[in-house]
Amino acid sequence: MRHNNHNRKFGRPADQRRALLRSLAEGLILHGRITTTEAKAKELRPFVEKLITKAKTDSVVSRRLVVSELGTQDRAEALFKVAPRFSDRPGGYTRIVKLPRRTGDASPMAIIELV
Q1: Please, are residues 79 and 29 in contact by the beta-carbon 8 Å criterion?
Q2: Are 24 and 34 in contact (CB under 8 A)?
Q3: d(CA 65, CA 55)
Q4: Which of 4, 108, 109, 114 is the most exposed place for a label (fewest CB within 10 A)?
Q5: How many angstroms separate the CA atoms of 28 and 36, rounded?
Q6: What is the pLDDT along the chain (115 residues), one digit of tens a residue?
C-alpha cells in the first residue's frame, strides 16, 4: 500500500528520477528559471528549497550534504553562489507559474523560478 507516499514516479526507475531532479535543479540554479511540466515543477520545488536552505550556511557539513544530493562539485558550487541571495528569507525560494498546455500532448506546463 502507498499510504502517505505522495511522490510522483514519472514512469521511471528510482535512479532515473534522481537524475531527472538533479538535472532540473542544475538548470534552475544556473539559469534562475526553467520551463517544464507542472508535475515536474511541483516535485522539483521541495528538492531545490531544501538544498538552498542547506546552502545558506556555508560550512563543510552543508557542502558535503549538498554535493551528495546534487551529485557533482560543480553543481554545488553554483548553488553556493546563488544561496547568499536568500540569507534573510526564511523559506519560499521558488515560484511556480502555470502556462497554457503544450501543443503536442496537451501536458500542463509551468515555469519554475527562483524568487
Answers
A1: yes
A2: yes
A3: 9
A4: 4
A5: 11
A6: 889 888 899 999 999 999 999 999 999 999 999 999 999 999 999 999 999 999 999 999 999 999 999 999 999 999 999 999 999 999 999 999 999 999 999 999 999 999 9
- Residues 49, 93 contacting (CB under 8 angstroms): yes
Q: Per this entry, what is the length of the chain?
A: 115
Max intra-chain CA distance, the chain: 46
Cell numbers 557542502 correspond to 63
| C-alpha span between 82 and 22 (Å, rounded) | 16
DSSP letter, residue 11: T
Q: Do residues 101 and 78 lie in contact, with contact meaning Cβ atoms separated by under 8 Å?
A: no
Q: Which DSSP letter does residue 83 get?
A: G
Rounded Cα distance, 2 and 45, in Å:
22
In this prediction, residue 91 carries a pLDDT of 94
> Rounded CA gap, 44 and 53, in Å?
14
